[in-house]
């Protein structure tokens, strides 16, 4: 396959950035999208140019590190996959492909397609956990049965990989889907219920403080989420948040 | 030169750890906040250790090269985690898990370490459930189990095919809580470049900030290396692209021994290679072997027809299929340990029965499972794995058997540690896959997650406290010390070299070349001649690398090629050591198969008389031959037997 790539190049946070065009030839449809990027980078280095910086690690769709905005969609055209799971067979010979970084005020660009997502860590740090210390004396794992339906729902929410596609695709750059997935995961389990309301208050407050926008129920986050995290989580979060706000003495 | 002792406590096996904990020295809570501990790596071992040490009140600095501690490659573990809970009432016990692990490891691990691992395994499940890890449950609300290769009980806890993710997120959340409390300072996008030793003790690291390129000094009273395995020596493996051996290798070069590096696990169920562009291999969880049946055609002409696309698996009649694992190993069938399953696949493919165009693939067939549980039943168990397979190969595994082939997956060898998980350098600890300790020559499925969390949550907090009890009067370690200066200069010189060396070849060129030599000559099957050739070839790659490598860009910025260059330089040296270790070990055991040592049926032949030892290599200097130390393995509780899964 022959392709034209239009890639966002930005040399650091201060640089204005621009689209640069590259021609690619002999691309195999069996290649993954990132393998195609590897080929581009090898060619650039051999020419004496700087390769395109992009984040990637596990290349099997679970670490959440890869993050490319491809032809106007986070993680490209297919559903329920990350960029590293996208294969060139999803494109046609002669296609022009636009490749850009996640764009959100809370995710500043570090270089080219690499952005800083530490804001997500900061949201988890204010409450995305159960406050239990390591101990060899924790009660037996089966002492507290959890209804299978709750456990399964908690698992579904917990499969979020923290990639940031939800923020990237949202017109308000909202982190509601990410934040609510963690709030539901823990609120649905008896172990996490005790702190559920305080958790919701703290995480939502942090999310606002970090410059993520609000939710206007467009639902694009759910559509673009590589793990299919459900919008229902946002409803659950809003319920926890509202109930906590009423009770809160803050 | 430090002493080379295992520090295993006296007394009966089952009492050792209890006695150790009772006797261990402690650090008073008021003193803990004045003691610094560095943890390199935030996977299951590092993340759990950093969180637990932070909870105890130590002042922890945690480092990871990824953009968040949640990305560590533990996240990709799929199948499950073992624990001797005996919830299924099928005869499991601490002793049984201990026995299975020693046997699975082909009698090349330390009894005391493995027993401790089995002993704390049940605590891990309790701890994780308390953290809110959403394990799979039965309709009654209790935890579900599945079985895994190499054992006859159901002791594996799981969360669909994403167990590693869920456990890592659990550890990450515990770590995040401590970061919020201020007991842990997190350094994302930082790479550990050098160990700093003062008066023979590990007292800090030199790290590079991967965003600014700045070289930084960090001091501590103890350093934990939990940076994972070295599978990426082979270039193609199931490891993440960034997984590297640099922290472990720098530990070795600073005096910690590197043990059993030839023990590499080849995972039998990975998606086969499709072409030269391939950057990594994708694992399909071993749990698939619970319900999938592995086969190749009985007739070569059928295999050839499938490879050419003239036939598909569905055209091969039942009688013309060779379920070779069930045929060779009727007692364990498709659930034989990984090394046995991998070699059996290689044997069939080498004999010409492979089923894709490279000739290196076998079928993993779910037709029987779908007939038994229905498509929905299979989807509930393996849905996400089937989806992943289809995304990569564009074939639907509900309709067409999967094609699989073995790939490099896990490294049992690693930094040598004693019972305390302390290396030969005082104050330098190694945990998780980075150390060599618990899996012998072969790791059983679902035991990596168990070991990582055991080391991080339940072992290091005791053993590090025991070590640090002597450091309460030391005071803060100054980064102005001459040793920091020296270590920083080493790092700086190497970075300067890479930037100034205007070579003609990219880093990946060398990495791929190294990987090819390693896979062909130090891979699934090894022999003397091949290993000797490999050592010469690796030397040539190394010489060429230092002459011809080209690193673009600038040093003081985000520069991914510069990161890779340092890692590949270390992989090349480690590849050499692996070949030496494999050459030294004149026997076949676990993941190490020497063609000279096999039975008439092609099964591995151990040599217990001469090789019941840990091969721990000591660094002797640039271009010097490393020195071999032998730690004899004593089996007092288990009788050494030839492994049989027939």
Task: Provide a concise account of the structure shown.
The complex is a heterodimer of chains A (250) and B (646). Helix content of chain A is 36%, strand content 11%.
The largest inter-chain interface, given as chain pair and residues per side, is: A-B, 79 and 81 residues
Task: Note the run of SSEs of chain A as H and E.
Answer: EEHEEEEEHHHHHHHH
Number of DSSP strand runs of chain B: 19
Gross morphology of chain B is globular
Question: Mind describing the biggest β-sheet of chain B?
Answer: 5 strands, parallel
The overall pLDDT of chain A, averaged over residues, is: 96
Physical arrangement of strands within the biggest beta sheet of chain B: 5-2-1-9-17
Shape of chain A: elongated
Work out the number of β strands of chain A: 7
The SS-based structural class of chain B is alpha+beta
- Any guess at the CATH architecture of the largest domain in chain A? Orthogonal Bundle
- What would the CATH topology of the domain at 267-409 in chain B be? Flavocytochrome C3, Chain A, domain 1
The percent range for helix content of chain B is 25-40%
Estimated share of beta-strand residues of chain B: 5-15%
Radius of gyration of chain B: 24 Å
First-to-last CA distance of chain B = 46 Å
Task: Provide tags for this entry.
heterodimer, A: 250 residues, alpha+beta, two-stranded antiparallel sheet, 9 helices, 7 strands, B: 646 residues, Flavocytochrome C3, Chain A, domain 1, Methane Monooxygenase Hydroxylase, Chain G, domain 1, 5-stranded parallel β-sheet, 5-stranded antiparallel β-sheet, 17 helices, 19 strands
């Amino acid at each position: 396959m022959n392709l034209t790539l239009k890639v966002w190049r930005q040399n650091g946070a201060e640089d204005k950035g621009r689209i640069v065009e590259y021609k690619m030839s002999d691309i195999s449809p069996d290649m993954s999208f990132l393998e195609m990027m590897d080929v581009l980078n090898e060619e650039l280095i051999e020419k004496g140019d700087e390769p395109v910086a992009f984040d990637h690690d596990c290349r099997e769709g679970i670490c959440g590190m890869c993050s490319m905005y491809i032809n106007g969609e986070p993680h490209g055209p297919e559903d329920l996959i990350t960029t590293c799971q996208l294969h060139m067979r999803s494109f046609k010979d002669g296609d022009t492909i636009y490749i850009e970084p996640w764009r959100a005020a809370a995710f500043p660009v570090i270089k080219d397609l690499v952005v800083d997502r530490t804001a997500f860590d900061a949201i988890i740090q204010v409450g995305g956990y159960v406050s239990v210390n390591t101990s060899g004396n924790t009660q037996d794992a089966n002492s507290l049965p959890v209804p299978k339906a709750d456990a399964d729902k908690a698992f579904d929410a917990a499969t979020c990989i923290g990639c940031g596609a939800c923020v990237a695709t949202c017109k308000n750059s909202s982190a509601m889907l990410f934040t609510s997935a963690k709030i539901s995961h823990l609120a649905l389990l008896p172990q996490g219920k005790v702190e559920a309301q305080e958790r919701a208050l703290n995480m939502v407050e942090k999310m606002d403080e970090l410059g993520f926008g609000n939710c206007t129920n467009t639902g694009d986050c759910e559509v673009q989420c590589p793990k299919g995290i459900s919008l229902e989580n946002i409803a659950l979060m809003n319920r926890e948040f509202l109930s906590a706000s009423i009770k809160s003495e803050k | 030169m430090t002493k080379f002792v295992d520090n295993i406590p006296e007394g009966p096996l089952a009492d050792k750890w209890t006695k150790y904990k009772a006797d261990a020295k402690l650090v008073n809570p008021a003193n803990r906040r004045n003691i610094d501990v560095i943890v390199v790596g935030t996977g299951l071992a590092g993340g759990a250790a950093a969180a637990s040490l932070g909870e105890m009140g130590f002042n922890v600095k945690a480092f990871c090269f990824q953009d968040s501690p949640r990305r560590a490659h533990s996240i990709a573990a799929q199948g499950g985690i073992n624990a001797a809970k005996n919830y299924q009432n099928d005869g499991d016990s601490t002793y049984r898990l201990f026995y299975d692990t020693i046997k699975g490891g082909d009698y090349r691990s330390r009894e005391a370490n493995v027993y401790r691992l089995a002993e704390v395994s049940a605590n891990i499940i309790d701890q994780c459930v308390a953290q809110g890890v959403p394990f799979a449950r039965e309709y009654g609300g209790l935890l579900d189990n599945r079985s895994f290769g190499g054992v006859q009980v159901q002791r594996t806890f799981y969360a669909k095919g994403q167990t590693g993710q869920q456990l890592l997120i659990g550890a990450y959340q515990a770590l995040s809580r401590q970061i919020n409390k201020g007991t842990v300072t997190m350094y994302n996008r930082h790479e550990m470049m050098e160990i700093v030793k003062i008066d023979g003790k590990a007292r800090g690291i030199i790290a590079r900030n991967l965003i600014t390129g700045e070289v930084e000094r960090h001091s501590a009273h103890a350093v934990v290396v939990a940076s994972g395995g070295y599978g990426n020596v082979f270039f193609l493996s199931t490891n993440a692209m960034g997984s590297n051996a640099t922290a472990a290798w720098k530990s070795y070069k600073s005096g910690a021994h590197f043990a059993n590096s030839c023990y590499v696990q080849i995972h039998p169920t990975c998606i086969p290679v499709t072409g030269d562009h391939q950057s990594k291999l994708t694992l399909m969880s071993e749990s698939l072997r619970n319900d999938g049946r592995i086969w190749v055609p009985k007739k070569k002409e059928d295999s050839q027809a499938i490879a050419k696309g003239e036939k598909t698996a569905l055209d091969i009649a039942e009688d013309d299929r060779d379920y070779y694992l069930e045929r060779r190993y009727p007692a364990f069938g498709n659930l034989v340990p990984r090394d046995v399953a991998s070699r059996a696949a290689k044997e069939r493919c080498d004999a010409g029965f492979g089923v894709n165009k490279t000739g290196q693939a076998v079928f993993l067939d779910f037709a029987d499972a779908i007939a038994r549980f229905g498509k929905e039943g299979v989807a509930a168990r393996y849905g996400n794995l089937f989806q992943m397979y289809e995304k990569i190969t564009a074939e639907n595994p509900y309709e067409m058997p999967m094609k699989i082939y073995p790939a490099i997956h896990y490294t049992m060898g690693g930094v040598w540690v004693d019972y305390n998980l302390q290396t030969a350098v005082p104050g330098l600890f190694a945990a998780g896959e980075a150390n060599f300790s618990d899996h012998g020559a072969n790791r059983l499925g679902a035991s990596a997650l168990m070991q990582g969390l055991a080391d991080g949550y339940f072992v290091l907090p005791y053993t590090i406290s025991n070590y640090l009890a002597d450091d309460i009067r030391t005071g803060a370690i100054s980064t102005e010390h001459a040793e920091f200066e020296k270590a920083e200069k080493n790092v700086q010189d190497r970075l300067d070299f890479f930037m100034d060396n205007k070579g003609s070849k990219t880093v990946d060129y060398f990495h791929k070349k190294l990987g090819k030599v390693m896979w062909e000559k130090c891979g699934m099957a090894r022999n003397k001649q091949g290993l000797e050739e490999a050592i010469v070839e690796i030397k040539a790659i190394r010489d060429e690398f230092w002459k011809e490598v080209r690193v673009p860009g600038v040093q003081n910025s985000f520069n991914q090629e510069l990161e890779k260059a340092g890692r590949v330089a270390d992989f090349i040296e480690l590849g050499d050591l692996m070949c030496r270790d494999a050459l030294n070990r004149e026997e076949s055991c676990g993941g190490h198969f020497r063609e000279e040592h096999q039975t008439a049926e092609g099964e591995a032949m151990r040599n217990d008389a001469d090789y019941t030892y840990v091969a721990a290599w000591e660094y002797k200097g640039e271009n010097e031959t490393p020195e071999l130390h032998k730690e004899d393995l004593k089996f007092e509780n288990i009788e050494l037997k030839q492994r049989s899964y027939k």
